[in-house]
Specification:
The complex is a heterodimer.
Chain A: E1 31-44, E2 50-65, E3 70-74, H1 81-88, E4 96-101, E5 104-105, H2 111-120, E6 121-124, H3 138-148, H4 155-165, H5 182-194, E7 200-204, H6 212-229, E8 232-236, H7 240-246, E9 249-254, E10 257-263, H8 264-269, H9 274-282, H10 319-325, H11 332-336, E11 342-345, E12 348-350
Parallel strand pairs in A: 3-8, 3-9, 6-7, 7-8
Antiparallel strand pairs in A: 1-2, 1-4, 4-5, 9-10, 10-12, 11-12
Helix pairs in contact in A: 3-4, 3-5, 4-5, 5-6
Chain B: E1 7-20, E2 23-36, E3 40-44, H1 51-58, E4 68-75, E5 78-79, H2 85-94, E6 96-99, H3 113-124, H4 129-142, H5 148-151, H6 161-172, E7 179-183, H7 191-208, E8 211-216, H8 219-225, E9 228-233, E10 236-242, H9 243-248, H10 253-261, H11 324-343
Helix pairs in contact in B: 3-4, 4-6, 6-7
The chains are: A alpha/beta, B alpha/beta.
Bound molecules: adenosine-5'-triphosphate (ATP) (2 copies), iron/sulfur cluster (SF4) (2 copies) and magnesium ion (2 copies).
Residues 81-82, 204 of chain A line the site of one magnesium ion.
Chain lengths: 368, 344
């Protein structure tokens, strides 16, 4: 394994609740994760299985989310966004690290002890088709949380109120999920997630499977519900436009690490980490006159999380490191030492030895 | 600057109707457009609007028994809809090439990538194995696969998503096609890799002076790389023009809706303006303008008369009954409204 023991020592002196605060950071955070790491062992052997390697899915991640705030989590496929969400909700156990919810340490709680917290935190998934049972009626799907948590009262009335709230016709109570369009199914998912009046909703790519016109309807719904119920969101997406639209604050992930955190405006106007800058430059701007050839600053693909690079995880592709070293070299510290997530300017954290100056341009990569 | 050359594909009044137990699915219902050499022609529209069926029909990949097809698809002097399968095969393999969203649609998982491209070359060109192999290595290097000599022997699963897409493009280029059809070529890819593939397609288009049809639901991609744009809704074109015309002065309420629904990366914008409702069933397409149940500007004739795709004086063809002055005013008002909202 190439990486030095980086996971056990904190990468930053900043406690999670103080990393890149937004204006909504008042009072105590609703949820925090501290030095969270998740590795999936890769085993070999049929009878005697031994661990031969591990997928470094999440590496030493720390952040906090304040009540009523939306934290966006962006990054390319496989960088560990979904794993972070699943560990945070304890749907899977972390390898190390600490999770708190409303100030309480929930890291060591077992399934039964987690019950009360489950009501407070709900998850919404990407695929409105796969996450709903086609043999159940809408009433059964949205009413399920009431039954699971054995709540008394008129379930049908409550469900119909929820349906109305998310823009579904309450008369469709007895219809089956397959009779609804993608956008409507996602509304069903929202209604189900809202049923128990949770404080936190973790949305994992909730609009990625939808057409743009429908996506806009669902994003507006999320905003309205946040205002009405004071919801807190962890909003995961690979779409930088969507994340910017919905988030107060954004964390950028690369190969299991959070490499940058700032408020949405600050991150987009003044990216400090070279990876964030490259990601932003790659997004089609939809503006007449922008040329595709001016925005490829990265070559190659994301390296494997089984054998992550030494030092800074971004160093094999980093244009800034090459600018600093000159030619095709990479500075020594980028190669051997993991940069901590430190405050670069006020309320703006990045994990880079050579953070970008304001409006510094990255060199375009040579054509592969 | 890209030079736009002579027309290579002319589609005239194309209709593709699928009989199904529930009724006739009018997937494509009267489509006319032209693609030129050196041009990237973008087709945008929501899921189910008929983008893929249009291109699959042009390639002869829709089984004629399964659909009622009419109209003309003129390519290098032939009407592809009138050719027999035998006559179509050489054209399909050599002159027209297609790449898909899912590379496994082209690459067989059990055979080495290199061998598959060699085979593709040999099935149309009579050249020996060694020649075909050399050409394959050349192609793999042209699409930016590092160490093509070594990677030649890899299986598709040993390639990353971006590399599989590159390999598929290499295969599509095997016979120097004059038209490359790319159906959502980057939808499954990450944005940094998407930028690389779009650049590659652009580079190939200029290098070989070919035409490219780029199908996508991403307006941002089209605005960045296409020279012409056709916006489709429910099997028909609602607006058709140069990229600048369509993006700077869109003339159709559906195009407005699409443009306003996209969260803009350049500003944390005001509230999104979604298009109300959902796309129609293609079995029961609304009468008149098929967009009328969702259109905020609907007026008298809209649910009765179907608007044809015409230049009504706005400079490019569109299919909406509104008068051009009204369209210009409405679009300016909608834009002004958005700017105001951002400012406040
Ligand atoms: N149960 C598992 N066993 C082994 N590896 C896993 C498991 N779940 C996830 N991984 C791996 O962990 C890494 C992070 O995966 P994760 O699903 O969190 O990524 P993601 O950022 O959500 O990606 P995407 O955008 O594609 O959804 C990936 O390399 C993935 O293959
Ligand atoms: N063989 C078939 N039989 C019946 N209907 C079909 C057939 N092939 C396609 N269709 C229908 O034709 C319509 C147009 O499909 P098409 O695949 O062209 O859409 P698209 O615009 O490419 O959408 P997407 O963005 O989802 O790929 C759809 O409603 C589809 O269900
Ligand atoms: S630490 Fe070095 S390699 Fe990593 S992002 Fe910064 S400059 Fe690039
Ligand atoms: S024809 Fe009528 S319904 Fe159709 S887009 Fe124009 S105004 Fe709207
Ligand atoms: Mg995921
Ligand atoms: Mg399609």
């Amino acid at each position: 394994m190439s990486r030095a023991a980086s996971t056990n020592e904190p990468t930053t002196d900043t406690p999670p609740e103080d990393i890149a605060k937004s204006s909504k950071a008042v009072g105590e955070p609703l949820v925090t994760v501290e030095n969270l790491t998740k590795r999936f062992p890769i085993k070999k052997g049929i009878i005697f299985q031994r661990e031969v390697a591990a997928v470094h899915a999440v590496e030493d991640v720390s952040f906090a989310i304040y009540p009523g705030e939306t934290l966006g989590l962006v990054g390319e496929s496989g960088c560990g966004k979904s794993t972070t969400a699943r560990v945070l909700l304890k749907l899977i156990e972390p390898t190390s690290g600490k999770i708190t919810f409303e100030g309480e340490d929930i890291t060591g709680l077992n399934k039964r002890q987690m019950r009360p917290m489950r009501r407070q935190a709900q998850m919404m998934f990407q695929d409105p088709y796969a996450s709903l049972n086609p043999r159940q009626t809408i009433g059964q799907i949205i009413g399920a949380p009431f039954r699971i948590h054995k709540l008394s009262g008129d379930t049908k009335q409550k469900v119909q109120e929820l349906m109305e709230r998310v823009g579904l016709n309450p008369e469709h109570y007895n219809r089956y999920a397959h009779e609804f369009s993608g956008g409507q199914r996602q509304r069903i998912g929202v209604a189900r997630a809202l049923a128990l009046r949770p404080k936190l909703i973790v949305c994992d790519e909730p609009v990625s499977a939808l057409d743009v016109s429908i996506q806009a309807q669902v994003l507006n719904l999320f905003e309205d519900l946040q205002e009405e119920f004071g919801l807190t969101y962890l909003f995961i997406s690979h779409d930088l436009g969507v994340v910017r639209h919905i988030s107060d604050r954004i964390a950028v992930m690369y190969l299991g690490h959070i490499v940058e955190v700032a408020t949405a405006d600050e991150l987009y106007n003044n990216p400090k980490h070279p990876y964030t800058a490259a990601l932003l430059s790659a997004v089609p701007k939809g503006k007449v006159g922008t040329q595709v050839t001016t925005r490829t600053v990265l070559t190659g693909d994301v390296p494997s999380p089984v054998n992550p690079p030494s030092g800074c995880p971004f160093h094999p592709r980093c244009p800034k490191a090459r600018q600093v070293a000159g030619g095709d070299g990479v500075p020594e510290n980028c190669r051997v030492e993991l940069p901590p997530l430190g405050e670069v300017v006020e309320n703006h954290h990045a994990a880079c030895w050579y953070p970008l100056e304001e409006s510094e341009e990255l060199a375009k990569a040579a054509h592969a | 600057m890209t030079q736009i050359g002579e027309p290579i594909l002319e589609v005239k009044d194309l209709k593709v109707h699928f009989p199904t137990p529930d009724g006739m699915v009018k997937a494509v219902d009267g489509l006319t457009f032209t693609v030129h050499r050196g041009e990237t022609f973008g087709i945008v529209g929501e899921s189910g609007s008929g983008k893929s069926v249009t291109c699959l029909t042009a390639l002869g990949l829709i089984k004629r028994e399964s659909a009622q097809i009419s109209g003309e698809v003129l390519f290098e002097g032939h009407d592809l809809l009138k050719l027999s399968n035998e006559d179509l095969r050489p054209i399909r393999g050599k002159a027209l090439s297609m790449i898909f969203q899912d590379p496994f649609a082209c690459l067989h998982p059990f055979y080495r990538v290199g061998d598959q491209i060699v085979e593709a070359i040999q099935c149309h060109d009579s050249c020996d194995k060694k020649e075909a192999r050399n050409r394959t290595v050349e192609l793999l290097s042209a699409v930016g696969i590092p160490q093509p000599d070594d990677r030649f022997r890899d299986y598709p699963h040993q390639f990353s998503g971006g590399m599989r897409q590159r390999a598929m493009i290499a295969m599509a280029l095997a016979h120097n096609p004059s038209l490359l059809i790319a159906d959502e070529p980057t939808t499954a890819l990450d944005v940094t890799v998407q930028a690389q593939i779009l650049e590659l397609i652009d580079h190939i288009k200029q290098e070989f002076n070919i035409g490219v049809i780029l199908i996508t639901h991403d307006l941002g991609v089209v605005a960045d790389v296409a020279q012409s744009v056709m916006v489709m809704y429910a099997g028909r074109a609602v607006e058709y023009g140069s990229r600048d015309e369509v993006f700077s002065g869109p003339l159709h309420p559906y195009t407005w809706g699409l443009l306003e629904s996209i969260p803009n990366i350049d500003r944390k914008g005001a509230r999104l303006v979604p298009i109300e409702g959902a796309p129609p069933s293609l079995i029961r397409v609304p009468t008149g303008c098929s967009f009328n149940p969702r259109c905020p500007h609907r007026f008298d004739p809209c649910d009765k008369d179907r608007p044809e795709l015409l230049d009504r004086g706005g400079g490019h063809p569109e299919a909406c009954h509104l008068r051009v002055e009204d369209k210009k005013r409405l679009w300016n008002e909608r834009e002004a409204g958005r700017v105001e909202e951002v400012a406040s």
